[in-house]
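=== Structural record ===
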Amino acid sequence: MTTTLRPPVGELLRGWRQRRRLSQLDLANDAGVSARHLGFLETGRARPSREMVLRLAEHLDVPLRERNDLLLAAGFAPAYARRGLASPDLAAVTRALDLVLAAHEPFPALVVDRSWELVTANRALALFTAGLPAHLLEPPVNVLRLSLHPEGLAPRIANLAQWRAHVLHRLGHEADLTGDPGLAALHRELTALPGGSDRSTPDGIAVPLRLRTGGGVLSFLSTVTTFGTAVDLTAAELSVEAFLPADAVTAEAVRHLAAGAAGEHSGSLRSVDGGGRP
């Protein structure tokens, strides 16, 4: 049997403080504790209470999953449950997701987990996925890999270098913010894919996704929605990304395509239960 050694809670707290670029004095002042006591906690000379772990985690903006890790390292039970989306306890969450996805039609919208794996999507996502190879559409589908892979959306993205720089910057920031090694590995994988990088300041208000289609180039702006007060791991790690038209031409073209495809759902992506991941 292989035993995985968990780092001491003080070492983990110090790592989170350094990741947030805070001094001991900064964190101590924010959390209402003495810098001396915080130093003792980080070096293991003092043992934090459950309440102190949660207080420091709150001020360090530690994700819920990693707050559980801190509690376990300190010898306490986890505070945050992880339920599957099929759980009756998350019925309100699934209803809210269905409402948001439906409200964005005829424009594409999808739900992803923290790893950027697809949880579910509305019918309009077929606008992006139609014609893509089956091996990229088999669950679990990582939507960032799908967008930047040379067999995925990448050849259809008119501003690939610009969009790629935006995606990689965002992913790198999330990997740093969460300390998630899976996100860091995904960032390395996607960075190695071809496509260039354009970090110049874009025109307009945001970096658009400019997609080549049979009807010309369509331009979208993306928005992200999260459950801001979630205390369940599954709900806290879900995000809704919606792609809205960046111009009137795109809006009219998408509505025309949706009208022509009424009653059809050609996308081969399948919904999965985002709460079932370990």
Q: What stands out?
A: Residues 160-178 form the longest helix (19 residues). The chain has 13 helices and five strands. The longest strand covers residues 216-226. The beta strands are 109-112, 118-121, 209-213, 216-226, 239-245.
